[in-house]
Each structure stands twice: as C-alpha cells, then as structure tokens.
Inverse folding.
C-alpha cells in the first residue's frame, strides 16, 4: 500500500474540483468536493436549550422556540439552495413518535429546523442529526 | 502546510478505494465510501425544477407528492442509503426500485400525498 501524506487537497485546473474514482468497477468517477458534507451536527436539547454535541462548520445555535432551532454556519454556503436532511431522536415518546424537520428558510448562512411529533406539535427532541450537502461560498 | 494539487484521485491497489486517516489520528476511513454520491434540492410544486444538485440527470414528477430523481451515474445495486426531507412535510420512499432512480414521496401533516417546494435528498453507497 502506498501512503500519500498531505495536509490539504486542491484541484489543479479548478481549485474546487477534484475527480475521484469511486465506482465498484473502478471506472466510474464522482467529485470529491460535491460529495463532502459541508455542515453536520448532532444537536441535543438540554433543559429545553439546544447544545452542540458534535459538529462541523457550525458557529452557534439559536433556541427559537420549543422544537425550533437555528444553526449558524461558520462558512456560508454558496447560495440559498442546497440539500438538507435531518433525523430527530427522542427518548420521551409515548407512542409511535413520528417527527419531521421543517425548513422555514432558504439561507446561505444559517438553517432553521423544526421538530414536530406525529400530532404536528413542535417539541424538543432528545437529539437530532442534521447534514448539508452543496457548494460552499 | 503541504497542499496536494491534482485533478483526479485514484487508489493505487484498488482504483475505487482510498483510505484517509480519521480525526483521532489513527483510525482510517474510506474516502469514497464517505462521499455522498448524489444530492439534490428541488421545487416539487408546479413544473418541478432542480435548484441545486450533484450527479442528478433529471427529475420526474410522477404524481402529487411522488417524484423520482434520476442519477447521471448509477449505483452498483439497489442497496444504497437514502436520506430525504422536505419543508414542514413528511417524507418517505417506496424502496430503492432502481440503481439509477430514487423514489421520493412527500406527505402533508394529514399523511396525504402533497407537493412541496423544498424537497431534499442524498444517497450514499457504491457507484457502478
């Protein structure tokens, strides 16, 4: 096995674009920068307030209301359209808890999350995982 | 700081496999496996339209709240991981029915199919 040691990767022709062989057949390529998550967080609620359990590219959290949070990015996204997915977790469910995350905003610098139960009432989950894919500014 | 400038990365032993040392400094992870193989953000109302994406060839509007995103480069099989969400609505999908097409279903808060202006999806797994 050969090991390449480096601290940073940069595209040669375009700094922000590196192609990588990623197919099972060792032929198909994809884009490294396109595939990397630009923001992720394990957000916990402690005493009804959001806490950053672990994260990438998160500068701060706002507690907007019960079940409503704003995640501020350290480095903004390149535009307001990017791909955001999330999954809440709760240890306080009294039934078949179904939760969804609502996106109230389209913003390059922050993301607003809403956690609701199966009755569509906002509530604070024990934790939630949130991920963004797209272009950084 | 050392910066490697290159246009393409290819594994030496296996073209599609490069190990990267993780944050702990000892454990390694696989670069290719960690990359999302597609992502999208689309408006599923009216004439559906993709706002931002990677490895998405087209979007199909099957019916109310029922879409397919069609990949440029397909997964190697149908056992890939799908993460989807939409603004204020519930989401689901009817299984990975194809290696190159991902079904996304959006439901309103009454659990009926509904169109939504902010639909997001990502897949992880092996490309073909």
């Amino acid at each position: 096995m050969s090991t390449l040691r480096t601290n940073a990767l940069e595209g040669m022709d375009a700094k922000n674009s590196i192609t990588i062989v990623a197919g099972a057949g060792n032929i198909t390529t994809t884009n490294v920068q396109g595939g990397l998550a630009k923001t992720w967080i394990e957000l916990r609620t402690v005493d009804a307030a959001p806490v950053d359990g672990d994260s990438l590219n998160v500068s701060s959290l706002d507690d907007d209301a019960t079940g409503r949070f704003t995640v501020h990015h350290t480095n903004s996204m390149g535009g307001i359209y990017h791909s955001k997915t999330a999954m809440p977790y709760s240890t306080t469910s009294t039934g078949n808890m179904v939760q969804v995350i609502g996106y109230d905003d389209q913003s390059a610098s922050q993301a607003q999350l809403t956690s609701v139960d199966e009755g569509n009432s906002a509530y604070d989950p024990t934790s939630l995982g949130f991920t963004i894919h797209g272009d950084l500014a | 700081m050392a910066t490697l400038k290159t246009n393409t990365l290819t594994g030496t032993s296996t073209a599609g496999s490069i190990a990267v040392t993780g944050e702990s400094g000892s454990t390694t992870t696989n670069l290719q496996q960690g990359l999302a193989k597609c992502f999208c953000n689309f408006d599923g109302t009216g004439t559906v339209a993709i706002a931002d994406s990677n490895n998405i060839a087209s979007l199909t509007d099957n019916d109310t709240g029922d879409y397919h995103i069609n990949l440029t480069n397909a997964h190697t099989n149908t056992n890939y991981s799908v993460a989807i969400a939409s603004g204020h609505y519930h989401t689901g999908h009817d299984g990975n029915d194809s290696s190159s097409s991902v079904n996304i279903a959006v439901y309103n808060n009454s659990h009926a199919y509904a169109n939504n202006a902010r639909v997001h999806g990502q897949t992880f797994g092996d490309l073909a």
In short: Chain B touches chain A through 51 residues (CB under 8 Å). DSSP finds one helix and twelve strands in chain B. The mean pLDDT of chain B is 92. The helical segments of chain B are 31-34.
